[in-house]
Queue: 2 jobs
Job 1
Amino acid sequence: MMSDRDFANYSDLFDLMISLVELPDLMIYIRSSIPTLVNHIGKRGREFEKSIRIDYLTGLNNRYEAG
């Protein structure tokens, strides 16, 4: 678990980075279901991707849909 101090540092860094990056003029979003995403991750065979949690993928999908 991250300490409050570490979280504040990361949060401040994130806010600074966001303030320096311009929004894109165009963003292409390819919609995909969670089972399809999990299938593609499995096919790629990247060890670090295999540990991505389903609730994380669901949250990402929800954020993209809201945006």
Job 2
Amino acid sequence: MSLVAKLKRPGPNGFGYGSTAEEVTRGLDLSGRTILITGCNSGIGLESFRVLASRGAHIIAAARTVEKAERAAREVGAGDRTTAVACELSDPSSVEACAETLARQGRPIDVLMLNAGIMALPKAKTVHGLELQFFTNHIGHALLTDRVMDLLSDNARIVVLSSTAHQRTPKGGIDFDNLDGSQGYDPWKFYGQSKLANLLYARELARRLEGTGKTANAVHPGVIKTGLGRHLNPVAAGLFSVFGPLLLKNVPQGAATQCYVAVHPEVEGVSGGYFADCNPAESSAHGRDPVLARKLWDETERILDRVSAG
């Protein structure tokens, strides 16, 4: 059996590499459930929006602007099942305003899908004294989660988009002494660091939610050709174009794992896991390190206190 065939072989639950979001949610009635999706307006966020809304869920569609969220709702034909909100993850005031809007509405949230992200910025950029990928992918989502925690329903599921890229990081996994990139910056290692932070955050959040009925899991969606890769260099972009049809997932396949973990009955009560291809997967050693997870949590809380006060 070829490597590609092995990768695409279904897992024990019948789903696998080639499964789509529609397939893993087929037959599910999500009427009465509310799902918040960040980055709802493109890529796998938009596909998750489309499919979960088609199953009857009300979607809180979060994008950088309300206009982008509303446009996405029109695109997927879910205008009457959508609450559009602005949530610019690199701007704490935007995240706080989003949470305040949702608190005023008082709608319980059954799924918090932390999907948005940026990848491999070619040059280091900082915001609030932190490298932009780390801030956007991790800190912004941690702030949003903290601020909407009281809105989560008793059995809410938190789904954090990580990546197999979490295996490619600076030494030690999280370089706490260089979170701004001033002591050296590598686009892919800093992306990997942000994705490891997503994974560790989900693990530690799951531990802290034990006994509440709420769960938190991280997912690797697969390698997908979406707008996320717009910063790839010309050589990498060319390879993606040539080998993409063989090695890359399409967007419906890429959205499958996060939709599976978000709503499938088989994942009810499962927490602290890492999923890929709609099945449990093994992470790196750093991704399984509870000491590192708690250290990141403590540092994240200090950062949130600082940026919120500012």
